[in-house]
Amino acid sequence: MVHLKTEEEIQIIKEGAQILGKAHGEIARLVKPGVKTKDLDKLAEEYIRDNGAIPSFKNYNGFPAALCISVNEVVVHGFPGDYVLKDTDIISVDCGVYYKGFHSDSAYTYPLEKVDAETLQLLSRTYDSLYLGIAQAKAGNRIGDVSHAIQSYVEDFGYGVVRELVGHGVGKKLHEEPEVPNYGKRGKGVKIVAGMVFAIEPMINRGTRNVVQERDGWTIRTSDRKPSAHFEHTVAVKEEVTEILTTHKYIEENYPYKWRSKSQ
Question: Is 54 helix (H, G, I), strand (E, B) or coil?
Fold first, then answer.
């Protein structure tokens, strides 16, 4: 069942999403070679709690951290730990915030300064596919319109679209209906109506779409060990417009490597 949100509930999610966005911004200052991924997680949890919210991911079905940190060939759900970032890495940082009874969810993939041009293109195109999907997330369309917009764009470049993991509704629970796949057919799937709030999150691989799960039961990586990119926003559908509730603004302000201008 899809739980539609009132305008007041959407506003609460947006307020939580601002805390989430600013937490991402604090993380952005620290993403650099020599930093351990567990240091990013510690910073994020402290910031979220200091601002009156709770990390959505910590203890979710046993997940041990506030952040999912996924480096290079890891698609999603990587654990923060003692891994030390290198200047050739890409790192996906996925975070959720629980605030006044509602969740928000967003992700961003950083390239460090010596990432190769082909991988930078993967990130840039995955980022663009997120906004192409959002453009189709409007009242009267169907989820398949969102899915098709993402899939058709990235597959034109020969990339693999992950099938096993999808976007999702967001609200009182972190994962609600509807599911929002990154592949699909126009005009198919759940009809999009005002009051829906969901996360759109392309997970796009430079090589095969096939993935494997590591023995920890969480970490998902590409089967060919080629890089994967992941970007995510939580959006709210209204009668006349769809609003992006989460923000990457603070990341873009605080991350010193202005990679998108270089990758266009």
Answer: strand
